[in-house]
Amino acid sequence: SDLPLPQIEVFKQGFNQKLQEGQEKLHQMWLDWSRKSFKASGDTSSAEPEEMESLALLMACSITQQLQITCCKIVSAIQGLPSSFQDKVKQSLSTIEELHASFSAANSFQDLSNSVLNQSQRNLAVIQEYMEELLDYLKNNTPLSWLVGPFSPREEEV
Question: Is Zinc a UniProt keyword of this protein (predicted)?
């Protein structure tokens, strides 16, 4: 009766993994960038922090784009579930889209206010909670449509 669960587990693991990898990489880059910018006074390699920053922004764009794709898959996979879950996942998707748009539009971290960055961290934490809730629900309530069709989870569907 739990046929589609591995699929949702894959979604969740992929989501959490991308989130974690992204946060770790961004954190590491931020540390490197901070060290360099502190040393940069009187240093000839003062262009490097800017390169680090644009690289970090590119990465943030890439991560949010991947999360967007994952979230789209989940939206289509959970049709027929209680609307509370569908609403939360759709809300997550629009939050990620906004985040992606912010990162895409920014030329540097100076373009992103502290409140935007703090808000994005809070939002991502909320989205993770939603995924946990969804998974808990699916462990006990497999949608009938998943067992008899028409939906059959396939990774290549976007």
Answer: no
